[in-house]
Amino acid sequence: xxxxCNIPDHExxxxxxxxxxxxxxxxxxxxxxxxxxxxxxxxxxxxxxxDFGRQYINKSDEDLNFELxxxxxxxxxxxxxxxxxLKFDCxxxxxxxxxxxxxxxxxxxxxxxxxxxEKQSLISMISKxxxxxxxTIYIGLQxxxxxxxxxxxxxxxxxxxxxxxxxINSIKDEQINTFAFNxxxxxxxxxxxxxxxxxxxxxxxxxxxxQKLNFHKKSIYCQYFMKKSNEFLSGSCDKTISxxxxxxxxxxxxxxRLEGHQGGINCLLMNKNEDLLISxxxxxxIKFWVKDNDLWECSxxxxxxxxxxxxxxxxxxxxxxxxxxxxxxxLIHQYDKDAKFWFEFQIIQINQWGRRLCFINDQIFVxxxxxxxxMHIYELDKVNNNFxxxxxxxxxxxxxxxxxxxCFWFFPQQYVQQQxxxxxxxxxxxxxxxxxxxxxxxxxxxxxxxxxxxxGKMTDNGEYLITWDDRSGAIQIRQYLD
Length: 482
Fold this sequence. Notes:
Elements: E1 16-18, E2 28-29, H1 31-35, E3 46-48, H2 49-56, H3 62-87, H4 94-98, H5 102-147, H6 152-160, E4 165-172, E5 176-181, E6 187-192, E7 197-203, E8 206-213, E9 220-225, E10 231-236, E11 241-246, E12 252-258, E13 265-270, E14 276-281, E15 286-292, E16 295-302, E17 309-314, E18 320-325, E19 329-336, E20 341-349, E21 356-359, E22 364-368, E23 374-381, E24 386-394, E25 414-416, E26 421-426, E27 429-435, E28 441-448, E29 454-458, E30 464-469, E31 474-480
Antiparallel strand pairs: 1-2, 1-3, 4-31, 5-6, 6-7, 7-8, 9-10, 10-11, 11-12, 13-14, 14-15, 15-16, 17-18, 18-19, 19-20, 21-22, 22-23, 23-24, 25-26, 26-27, 27-28, 29-30, 30-31
GO cellular component, one term: COPI vesicle coat
GO biological process, one term: retrograde vesicle-mediated transport, Golgi to endoplasmic reticulum
WD repeats: 258-289
């Protein structure tokens, strides 16, 4: 290792390292440090870097892993032995039973009663011990997950990777709950907590406001910018959806107001043809809207959830819709082409509710449980044609400085096909997650805003990530860097 010692007057390359757990000195040092009696009290733990590197830095804790494997193996052997023993239940054939006298029959009955009692007692004792073990393992896993992004080793790994999204612009503004971009990413709309909408010109990460709109009475919760026409939609806490269009004088105006929901509009999405609009609401309902003479009409309303519907997502083929709610359920709805009707296809019971889910394609969707360090991956089981949870991906949660409630709503998950990355807001972090060709997911960047109040959107080409958070009080624009 051709690096100078960090003590200025030594001016010589480092040669040694120290592995003593109680050592408080810098662990990488030179021969002069050794001459100055640093690490003198634990000299047996000092080794030359060239002898030690391959053994330690790139080597897992094999002894600890072996000890864990040995314990697991022993438990498994004992479990199967016990299982075989418990199968014995004084079994006797009917022919043998008929040959028994009264005393033998009495002994057999007593034996069976005693065996059953001992079996129940043993299973009860094992169950209590297993619960304690499960709790110990669970607490350990939680601690590992919580510290994952703060560990020095992880920090080194992250620093070695090139940062994907780098902050290039910051503009002070009041709270913006939602963003949306047009098809060319030259226009951006922001939906404000104060109920107004602003239209911005967007160019190379710079914003210029060109119009302010007042089409709602309460906070804007969600927006959608159409790709095939100069129109956008906004959903509000005032229970309405505004359809806005660009007039000939290049000013935006309201074209239609959609009413029907009895609660705030939490999510808006459209199919690729933009002739189907789907909305979800605090009223626990999902509505499907279709165009008739260039105006939208509600064609179907479906329920199924017993709490507000926080997020909805269409699969790639657009014949399945996933929805999540605070009721600890994920619902999969399917479209019947012949009947032209959406129906409930699958109910997935979950242990921890979440606000965010997103279809990746027809076979996979992802789900973020509320404030957990793991994002769940659901894949289509081709045998029973249902979605099942197959794996979990570690994601950042961040560190909170501004205390507030929950994980905060909005900022839906977004999958960018062009870059094969998923944006997943979780607690105080915005996670950039990469998907490879084998459908494996890995978090490659976690941006810690140190507050849960974060709202944002990525441009459809994945080049820019735009956010607003209450700690900075600013629109922050980040750009993708290879």
